[in-house]
User: Which sequence fits this backbone?
């Protein structure tokens, strides 16, 4: 059966991608919105993979710009690039990991893992769903990485490569699950040792009649070995690292306590004076590992140490001696002539040699309005070209380009030492350790006078019971709960210490564009002659054909079903003209529609004018809107912090901001990236801990200089330079609640300290009297651990509930 | 009482086999991507189904 194109009077839904359309391609009584979607369906049908459509309704991606895909992956033919991308290569067998940002449902998984049926030469494909990474094993004699990339693109999963993929040092470390193994081993040993110790606990002074005791003790001794030599290694490493840097961390006293417990127990067992404390020892190791695991849970989707390389492309097209070459980005030289195609990123600063550029600097500045440039003007690395291809004469190399140098300079300046623990926890553990040694000494002195045979017993018991493991448990479990609670609310912290740092903040600096304003969803107003429903359809259809962000917003704003457009002429950066049925529709700037002298608009914003059949109808005014609910947030923050707004724009939107911010807010306009950075650095040097709230690379300097850099983003997979935390844009109004959470976290940690110390006091009561027997230790240890785990868990849920956060 | 010893050795062996199973599954990356595994289990292998149908 052949496909047939028809205009439907009713809106239908595309079987493949779910787009609503009136312009239907019917194939085997299924509706499709475009040839791209149909061709994917046909490929799947031919290969018996139509199960794809069974798992989810309309799972596909709308296929756009299917042309020129072949030139896109030219760099995949370059042997040097391939060497760096291959994760495995032997003979003709190679493995490549493709990052596919479009992966979103089980159908994707099904289709991608069946790639071997679609493309000859692919041996297998395995998708890591949480990382959106497809690992393809293929035969280099039969196919190539470039061909596979093309196939994936045709299916709607365009692989994404970035400069960081080939950047020498940034070879991705294999995710180690050693900690999981350590936890498993310690759990096994802890459980069995506990079980084997029960006869000892419940012997109530009965002597060992059957001679079983030595055997039990022998097995316990065997079981403790892997705990000490494998599971606990992590603590030794951290303690040793702290010692080397002359810094007392919490791991050192823990390791000392562990060795004392081990040594004393070993002595007891060998000398037949007692059963030892192996049960408590293995339990402590198990709980501490569990806590650390919870705390250091990583967000697979988010990378904090992303830098510009993960945004830049892997290669550039260089035009030399009449031919186009694909050149790896670091090898681009000054005076190379680069060809920048539609939707490509400009990799180096340069002069526009040929063509009219329309450059979207949103990644760099957060400003969504594209900039129009003529030949001869400067273009900066990081901008994205919209429209036809242009030629750029490179004036700088990648590493010397303005933004990259800004970034690199900052890296040099801010060589911040990574601190593992916050100050107050460090102090608490120091006092704790000090108090402990004093107590041990006092006990030793006392028994020295009364009964010197008990010195050894009392001292070791004191150190054993009150090992600061309890502190570590309080801290790690509380941090773990809070981090995962906040992540559920769209607030992703780099690490537990970041949350604690929030408590020190005194001044908050906001960037305007992209942070306070939304790059998406501008407020759109239509002014002019009223458009009929049919005319709205026409405008929406034309807007839909353009890739210009403004046209996209209008198309989204009108939300009409698609009409087929017979003929389209795109004038990148100016407008678009198309024929639909017997109407001619034009959309674009007032210069493009030649009505510049007829139209006077005083309001600030971007104008998109509409002409239908040569008649001017009206215009759309697009204004970047402030995020909703900011006023409440600012009122909440005002009482605790000093607020400042830094904006790269002029002060035309001052009145808008005034409506949201309290009166005493400092507002500074016309700030360049360097000015922002210097402003924050000045605050910091005046001992005023600052939180910088910003987005985009232009704020990177300021984010890094601040005590706490908060990156606002609408997409977590986006670039977030130098930040301590990432916050989803629509969660910004919750910032006040997040501050309160960080205060609550401190309180909860102190309370759980108190609980564990209460347990310790009981233990110490027995210990200093030299009466601590293994059973008391074995009851106290898990009881205190479990109380702390439950307490921190319940307390963190209650605090989140009180602040009306998602749980 | 030697039966206690036998039982104890047995119980540790059983528990040990679970530990080995856990270590093996962690080492071979079976905990790396639980989301994908949850989907994978729902996907029937079409080829097998076809072969079965042909046999019938």
Assistant:
């Amino acid at each position: 059966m052949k496909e047939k194109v028809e205009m439907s009077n009713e809106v239908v839904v595309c079987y493949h991608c779910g787009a609503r359309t009136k312009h239907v391609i019917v194939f085997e009584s299924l509706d499709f919105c475009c040839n791209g979607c149909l061709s994917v369906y046909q490929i799947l049908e031919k290969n018996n993979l139509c199960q794809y459509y069974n798992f989810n309704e309309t799972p596909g991606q709308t296929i756009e710009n299917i042309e020129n895909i072949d030139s896109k992956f030219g760099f995949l033919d370059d042997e040097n690039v391939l060497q760096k991308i291959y994760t495995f290569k032997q003979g003709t067998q190679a493995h490549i990991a493709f990052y596919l940002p479009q992966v979103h449902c089980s159908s994707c998984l099904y289709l991608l893992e069946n790639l071997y049926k679609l493309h000859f030469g692919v041996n297998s494909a395995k998708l890591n769903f949480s990382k959106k990474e497809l690992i393809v094993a293929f035969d280099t004699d039969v196919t190539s990485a470039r061909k596979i990339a093309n196939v994936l693109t045709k299916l709607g999963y365009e692989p994404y490569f970035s400069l960081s993929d080939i950047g020498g040092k940034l070879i991705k470390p294999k995710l180690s699950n050693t900690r999981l193994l350590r936890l498993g081993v310690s759990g096994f040993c802890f459980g069995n040792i506990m079980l084997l110790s029960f006869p000892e606990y419940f012997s109530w002074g009965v002597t060992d009649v059957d001679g079983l005791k030595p055997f039990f003790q022998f097995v316990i001794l065997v079981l403790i070995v892997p705990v000490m030599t494998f599971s606990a290694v992590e603590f030794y490493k951290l303690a040793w690292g702290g010692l080397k840097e002359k810094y007392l961390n919490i791991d050192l006293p823990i390791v000392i306590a562990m060795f004392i417990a081990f040594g004393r127990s070993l002595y007891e067992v060998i000398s037949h004076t007692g059963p030892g404390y192996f049960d408590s020892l293995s339990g402590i190791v198990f709980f501490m590992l569990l806590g650390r695991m919870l705390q250091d849970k990583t967000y697979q989707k988010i990378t904090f140490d992303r830098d510009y390389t993960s945004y830049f492309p892997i290669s550039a097209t260089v035009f030399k001696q009449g031919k186009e070459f694909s050149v790896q980005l670091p090898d681009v030289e000054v005076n190379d002539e680069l060809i920048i195609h539609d939707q490509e990123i400009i990799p180096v600063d340069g002069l526009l040699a040929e063509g009219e550029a329309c450059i979207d600097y949103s990644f760099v500045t957060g400003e969504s309005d594209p900039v129009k440039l003529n030949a001869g003007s400067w273009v900066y690395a990081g901008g994205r070209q919209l429209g036809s291809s242009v030629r750029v004469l490179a004036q700088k190399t990648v590493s010397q380009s303005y933004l990259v140098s800004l970034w690199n300079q900052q890296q040099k300046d801010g060589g911040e030492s990574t601190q593992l623990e916050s100050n107050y926890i460090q102090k608490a553990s120091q006092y704790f350790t000090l108090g402990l040694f004093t107590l041990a000494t006092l006990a030793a002195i006392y028994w020295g006078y009364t009964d010197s045979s008990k010195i050894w017993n009392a001292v070791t018991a004191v150190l054993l019971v009150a090992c600061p493991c309890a502190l570590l448990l309080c801290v790690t479990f509380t941090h773990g709960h809070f981090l995962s609670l906040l992540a559920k609310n769209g607030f992703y912290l780099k690490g537990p210490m970041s949350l604690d740092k929030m408590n020190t903040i005194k001044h908050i600096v906001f960037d305007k564009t992209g942070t306070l304003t939304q790059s998406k969803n501008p407020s759109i107003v239509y002014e002019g002659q009223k458009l009929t429903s049919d005319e709205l359809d026409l405008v929406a259809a034309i807007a839909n054909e353009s890739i210009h962000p403004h046209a996209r917003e209008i198309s989204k704003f009108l939300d009409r079903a698609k009409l087929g457009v017979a003929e389209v002429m795109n004038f990148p950066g100016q407008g678009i003209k198309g024929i639909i049925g017997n109407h001619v529709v034009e959309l674009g700037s007032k210069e493009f529609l030649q009505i510049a002298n007829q139209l006077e608009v005083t309001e600030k914003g971007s104008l998109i004018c509409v002409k239908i059949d040569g008649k001017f109808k009206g215009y759309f005014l697009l204004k970047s809107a402030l995020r909703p609910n900011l006023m409440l947030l600012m009122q909440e923050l005002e009482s605790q912090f000093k607020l400042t707004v830094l904006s790269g724009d002029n002060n035309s939107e001052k009145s808008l901001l005034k409506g949201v911010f309290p009166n005493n807010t400092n507002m500074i306009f016309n700030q360049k990236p360097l000015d922002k950075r210097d402003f924050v650095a000045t605050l910091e040097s005046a001992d005023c801990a600052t939180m910088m709230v910003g987005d985009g690379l232009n704020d990177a300097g300021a984010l890094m200089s601040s005590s706490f850099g908060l990156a606002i983003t609408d997409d977590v997979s986006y670039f977030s330079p130098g930040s301590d935390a990432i916050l989803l844009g629509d969660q910004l109004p919750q910032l006040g609640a997040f501050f309160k959470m960080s205060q609550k976290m401190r309180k909860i940690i102190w309370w759980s300290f108190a609980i564990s110390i209460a347990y310790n006091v009981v233990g110490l009561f027995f210990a200093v009297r030299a009466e601590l027997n293994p059973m008391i230790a074995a009851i106290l240890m898990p009881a205190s651990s479990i109380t702390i785990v439950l307490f921190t868990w319940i307390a963190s849920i209650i605090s989140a509930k009180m602040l009306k956060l998602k749980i | 009482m030697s039966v206690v010893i036998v039982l104890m050795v047995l119980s540790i062996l059983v528990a040990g086999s679970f530990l080995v199973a856990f270590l093996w599954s962690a080492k071979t990356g079976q905990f790396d991507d639980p989301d994908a595994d949850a989907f994978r289990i729902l996907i029937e292998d079409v080829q097998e189904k076809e072969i079965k149908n042909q046999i019938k």
